[in-house]
Design a protein that fits this description.
The chain is α/β, with parallel strands linked by helices. It has 15 helices and 27 strands. A hairpin with a 2-residue loop joins strand 9 and strand 10.
C-alpha cells in the first residue's frame, strides 16, 4: 500500500529572487492533496525584449487536488501572478485584509469576478484538509507580512515568506516572537526560509531609523523634493509622509501604484494621523519648498512616474535646476543600467540626486541578515532547513549557515525538484515540469515561444524582407525588392549597393530553380533565405531573419 508523505515543491522562487510559487503536498504519491503558498511574478529585462511580466508555469498542477492558495503578503513577487494564473490554479484564496484588498484589485484588472477569496484575520487559522495553517505576524517592508505554521499529521513546517526582525516597524505590530517560540517548543520539522540577505552580516535595521534620516535630509533641501521608493513599502511611504510633514511640506502622490497602495493601507487602518496627500494640480501651485512628490519608478521603470518626469513627459509634475530627488530604495540586481540612466536624465535637468550611498540610513532592507537568521533558527529550532527566495549562491550559503549553527539537515532544491520532508530523512525524490510563462501582448506564452526567439534573433541580427511576383508559368513577373531593418551601413550609397547586390542574388537563385520547384512557395522561400543569409554573413557578419513575400499573378 502507498504511504502518506509530506513534500515541498518549489515551482518558482528557488534559485532566483522573485516569482515565488511554493507547493506543499500530503498523501501517497498517486493521490496527494496540495496547498499553494504565494503566486508571484518576476520582471523582464534586456534578455526578454517586449516582455515586462513573467509568471511561473503551473503545468504540474493540472489535474491535481488543490485545496487552497495561501498568500503570505502583498508584494508583486508573491501575489502578482494571481490574476494571470487564475484559470490554471483554481482554488480558494486566503489572505489577510491588506493583501486581500490588493488581490481584489488585481483580479478586477484581470477581469476575474468569481474568485473565492477569504480574508483571514492577523494571527488567524485555517484548516485545508490535512493542513492546519496558522498565520504568524512578522515584520517586512510591507503591511501585514505573515509566516505560515503548517501542521500536518507528519510534522509542522514554518514557511517564513519574506521577513526581517524590526522591533520598531512603524506600521503594524512587531514580530510575534512569543508565538514563534511557543510553536518552536512544540517541535518543527522544517523551516522554509528567506535567503535574500544571507551574505550580509548583522541585521537589516529598523524603519524608525529611516524616518529619522529622511527627516534630516529633507530638512536640508531648499526647493522641490521628489522621493522614489517602492509603493508597496507602506512603512517607507509612512516614513516619507511623516518626514515631509515634519519639514513643512505637503505630499503629492505620483504614480498609480502609490495611490493604490495608500488606499489599501488606509482601508486597514494604517497611515493614521498623516495629512491626506494633495493632487498634482494643487502641488503645482505651491512654492518649491512646500511640496514633496512621492513617486513610483525607483528602479528606472520606463513607464513609471519618475521616468516620465525625467523625460519631461509628465503633464503636471516638473523638476529642474536646484530641485532634489531622493532614492529611498535599493538597486535590485539587473536594474543597474536603467537606474543609472534615470539618474543621469534627472541630472541633465539640474536635479540633485541623493542615494543611500551618499546618505546611509535612508533605506533599510526588508529581508533578514545573518544575525536575524541565526535568531529565527534559535526560536524555531527546526530539524530541516530548506532555504528559498534566493539565487543558487544564496541557497547554498544559507544551508552552510544552518549547518554551522547546528540544524541537523539542510536541503536546497531547484525549482521543480520535489523534496520529501517526511517520513524518513529529507531527500529530493522527483523532478516535475517547471518553467516560466511570459506575458506577451496580454497573453501567456511559453518561455521558448517562437515570437520571443525571433525577437531576440532580430534584435541581434536584424531583418531582411524580400518581395517579388511569379506569374502563372512560375516566371519572375516583377523586379525583386529587398529591404533591410536593423543593419548597419556607412551611407545611402553603400546600403543601396548592398541591397541591389542582394536583389541580383535573389533573382539568379529564383531563376535557377526548376519550374516545379518554383511551384512550391516553401521551396522558393527556403532557397531565398539560404542565399540571402549567406550573403548577409559576408556583408555584415550577421545572419538576419529573412522574410520572403511571393505574390502570385
Amino acid at each position: 500500500m502507498s504511504t502518506n508523505e509530506l513534500v515541498f515543491l518549489p515551482l518558482g522562487g528557488s534559485n532566483e529572487i522573485g516569482m515565488n510559487l511554493n507547493l506543499y503536498g500530503f498523501g501517497p504519491a498517486d493521490d496527494r492533496q496540495w496547498i499553494v503558498a504565494d503566486v508571484g511574478v518576476t520582471f523582464g529585462d534586456l534578455t526578454t525584449p517586449g516582455i515586462e511580466v513573467i509568471v511561473p508555469d503551473p503545468e504540474f498542477l493540472k489535474g491535481e487536488t488543490i485545496l487552497g492558495i495561501v498568500l503570505t503578503h502583498a508584494h508583486e513577487d508573491h501575489i502578482g501572478a494571481i490574476g494571470w494564473l487564475r484559470d490554471r490554479i483554481k482554488a480558494p484564496v486566503f489572505a489577510t485584509p491588506f493583501t486581500a484588498f490588493l488581490v481584489r484589485e488585481k483580479l478586477r484588472e484581470a477581469g476575474v469576478d468569481d474568485c473565492d477569496l477569504t480574508e483571514v484575520p492577523l494571527g488567524g487559522r485555517i484548516q485545508l484538509g490535512p493542513f492546519d495553517i496558522e498565520y504568524v505576524t512578522l515584520t517586512h517592508s510591507i503591511a501585514e507580512p505573515n509566516g505560515l505554521f503548517i501542521t500536518t499529521p507528519l510534522g509542522t513546517i514554518f514557511h517564513t515568506g519574506d521577513w526581517k526582525i524590526d522591533e520598531d516597524p512603524i506600521t503594524g505590530k512587531p514580530t510575534d516572537v512569543d508565538r514563534i517560540k511557543a510553536l518552536g517548543d512544540r517541535g518543527v520539522l522544517a523551516m522554509v526560509c528567506d535567503s535574500t540577505n544571507v551574505f550580509v552580516e548583522g541585521s537589516a535595521g529598523s524603519e524608525a531609523m529611516v524616518r529619522d534620516e529622511l527627516t534630516k535630509l529633507i530638512g536640508t533641501l531648499k526647493r522641490r523634493v521628489a522621493v522614489a521608493c517602492f509603493a508597496s513599502n507602506v512603512a517607507r511611504v509612512d516614513s516619507v509622509m511623516r518626514a515631509a510633514a515634519a519639514c513643512g511640506r505637503q505630499v503629492c502622490l505620483v504614480g498609480r501604484s502609490m495611490h493604490r497602495i495608500t488606499a489599501a493601507a488606509r482601508h486597514v487602518g494604517l497611515l493614521d494621523g498623516i495629512p491626506d496627500p494633495i493632487s498634482e494640480g494643487e502641488a503645482a501651485n505651491l512654492k518649491p519648498d512646500q511640496v514633496l512628490y512621492l513617486c513610483t519608478g525607483s528602479q528606472g521603470e520606463p513607464r513609471a512616474a519618475l521616468s516620465r518626469i525625467a523625460d519631461g513627459n509628465h503633464p503636471l509634475v516638473k523638476l529642474g535646476a536646484g530641485d532634489a530627488c531622493v532614492f529611498s530604495s535599493r538597486v535590485i540586481p539587473g536594474n543597474e543600467i536603467p537606474i543609472r540612466s534615470l539618474q543621469n536624465r534627472l541630472s541633465d535637468l539640474g536635479v540633485e540626486i541623493h542615494t543611500e550611498r551618499d546618505h546611509p540610513g535612508i533605506h533599510v532592507s526588508g529581508h533578514p541578515c545573518r544575525d536575524e537568521l541565526k535568531e529565527m533558527y534559535a526560536w524555531v529550532r527546526p530539524q530541516i532547513a530548506v532555504p528559498t527566495h534566493g539565487e543558487r549562491r544564496h541557497l547554498l550559503k544559507h544551508a552552510a549557515l544552518a549547518e554551522e549553527i547546528g540544524i541537523r539537515h539542510q536541503i536546497t532544491p531547484h525549482n521543480g525538484e520535489m523534496v520529501r520532508l517526511a517520513p524518513g530523512l529529507p531527500e529530493i525524490t522527483d523532478e516535475v515540469p517547471s518553467g516560466r510563462l511570459f506575458v506577451d501582448g496580454g497573453i501567456l506564452v511559453p518561455e521558448a515561444a517562437d515570437a520571443l526567439r525571433e525577437r531576440r534573433h532580430a534584435a541581434h541580427n536584424g531583418m531582411i524582407f524580400v518581395a517579388f511576383a511569379l506569374d502563372g508559368r512560375n516566371r519572375l513577373a516583377s523586379i525583386v525588392d529587398v529591404r533591410g531593418l536593423g543593419l548597419a551601413f556607412e551611407n545611402e550609397d553603400t546600403i543601396s549597393d548592398q541591397l541591389e547586390g542582394l536583389c541580383n542574388i535573389v533573382e539568379k537563385t529564383v531563376q535557377n530553380l526548376s519550374s516545379e520547384q518554383r511551384e512550391d512557395d516553401e521551396t522558393v522561400e527556403a532557397a531565398v533565405a539560404r542565399v540571402v543569409k549567406k550573403a548577409a554573413q559576408s556583408i555584415w557578419d550577421r545572419r538576419p531573419i529573412v522574410e520572403t513575400i511571393i505574390l502570385r499573378v
